[in-house]
Amino acid sequence: MTDVGRHRGRLAAAFVVVVLAFAGLATRLGQVQLAGADGVSAQASSLDTRTVVEPALRGRILDRTGRVLAENRASTVVTLERRVIAEDRPSAEAEVRAVARVLGLPAARLLGRTWLCGEEGAPAAPTCWSGSPQVPVPLATGVDPQRALALVERPDRFPGVAVDSVPVRVYPRPEGVSAAHVLGYLGQATAQEVADDPDIGAGDLVGRSGLEQEYDDVLRGTPGRTVVAVDARGLVTGVVSRTEPVPGRDLVTSLDVDAQAAAERALADAIATDRARGGGGRADSGAVVALDATSGAVVALASAPTYDPNVWTGGISAADYADLTDEDAGTPLLSRATAVALPPGSTVKPSSVVAAVRAGNPLSGLYDCPAQYRIGDRVFRNHESYDRGLMSLERAVETSCDTVFYDVAYRAWQDQGGVSAGVDAADPFARAARGFGLGTRTGVDLPGESAGRVPDRAWRRQTWEASKEELCRRAREGYPEVADAARRRYLRAVARENCASGWQLRGGDAANLAIGQGDTLATPLQLAVMYAALGNGGTRPTPRVAAATVDTSTGERTAVPAGPRVSAPLDRRLGRYLRRALRGVVTDGTAARVFADEPADWPVAGKTGTAEQVGERDTSWFAAYAPADHPQWVVTAVVHRGGYGDASAAPAVQRVLLALRGLG
Predict the structure, then answer these.
(1) Euclidean distance between CA atoms 437 and 442, whole angstroms
(2) Is 586 exposed, middle or buried (0-12, 13-18, 19+ CB in 10 A)?
(3) Could you tell me which residue ranges the Penicillin-binding protein transpeptidase domain spans (predicted)?
(4) 119 and 97 assigned to the same domain
(5) pTM (2 decimals)?
(6) pLDDT digits over 493-540, tens only?
(7) CA of 154: how far to CAs of 88, 99, 104, 163, in Å?
(8) How far apart are CA 510 and CA 504, in angstroms?
């Protein structure tokens, strides 16, 4: 027997007990007539029947080499029939307290499970029971079998209590990886889900995020169904028919455990290093994404703060759930690789070079890089305080000269008609950004992806229409709740301006888009797709985490279909130009310090980004691919409040690229 077969065999027996436990409380289906049947089937024609849904064994999640990221193991669960609670809640609660004493567990946690979520007086989720009211309530999972045995031996003292062996989801964490934001977690099926989906039974676990949610139908398999005959008292008198469950398929991913471990460690170290610096290091969160530069296959996806996905095993406690959703702790449940979009800073400048050329600026021209640039009454400053003189667009990318891009963007904005232009006016900078995939979801096979934002005229008009009432109210009343007087005056002045003309795309807005600032937002995954297109010659791949599904009985492997491939706005000449510029960033530009000792056979090309946010420390970005001449891997990193792009994000990317160097 194969390892998979032994693994399945040990767990399959656990479901026998579950079927018997659910039989007495399953949904009533009415009379069943079975023409020509004898025995139990004939008897069923005059008796009620009930159908018991038997969950299938859930498929595993594996990395590209077969290392297990999610699997099942047997666990002891103590349940209580709902009728005991419904008939006499005070007596039921006294019984639950006695159960807690036997198990050595806090009574409060078990008592919370006796309430249906949404029921008057119920505690907040996840303490309450969110599953179906037709099945026994799991009071505790993963209990000591010896302690649970004491409950079984005293049925007179613990009426309605049952002890079962059931499979629970566990995450082995090979090489210490979490991968929590990729794998996701399971949650109890709600009564509504049971009613809506015939393949979901009362008490089933379903995917709630990550791959567990995206591929829930594949992993969950097909449940078995046992139709039983019952007498007038609801007691089972025989089995009418039985359909065996079909186990879920294993899901093989493109993730590589070693690459994932390198990404998680590099990100954690980047945040810790910044916080240990003198001068107010305040890095608090971030993400790293690594893709195959051609196919878009995701080999690593890390988000910080992270957590141990096993916290969900057997049901999460209210305290643990509060920790995962605590905004002050960085909301560890949130994926900062796919679901959080931030200003991407200068990492968008390759797109802006494309836009500048399309707006009529010669690729071979020279452009002034002054220390500052004035648009109306606003002064936009370069990150350096001195005039760098004339330079090519290539050198402007290498040195990250903001004022070159302010100028080409502002002149393009004027050519479009400035503030008088209509919402459908052609905007080469917004068009180029969208052409590289910004402002739209990548299509990755993970739920909850952010589309980011390309703030063009249409977006500004739509946003103003939705918020103008509040803006105009603030223009009239100000911000009395703000303690600082100067801050109050500033906010009210902004509200007055936006109330009067907030739908207009101003020159400063156009300049900010060109350098990835202002209202521009992108996720690390979006930038990874953009840099894949830059590296591979102009094709945007659809990122995919899942590679194949495997039938655990036959070993049959079925590839997960690849997503669409879209052409980026990059011709051959412009592509070569930008790849040379991105290589120059690493050899003689803003990232040269970090990559000074790069291996000769592993040249890197990339771009730093330093995103400024009012009242906060800069956010550090770096996007890169390697090897520079024939890109195989793309890696992007963001460290929120991590300072300059070469300070936190670039070192993290360097470490991950080195880890990918030997990966075939």
Answers:
(1) 7
(2) buried
(3) 286-657
(4) yes
(5) 0.85
(6) 999 999 999 999 999 999 999 999 999 999 999 999 999 999 999 999
(7) 20, 11, 17, 12
(8) 11
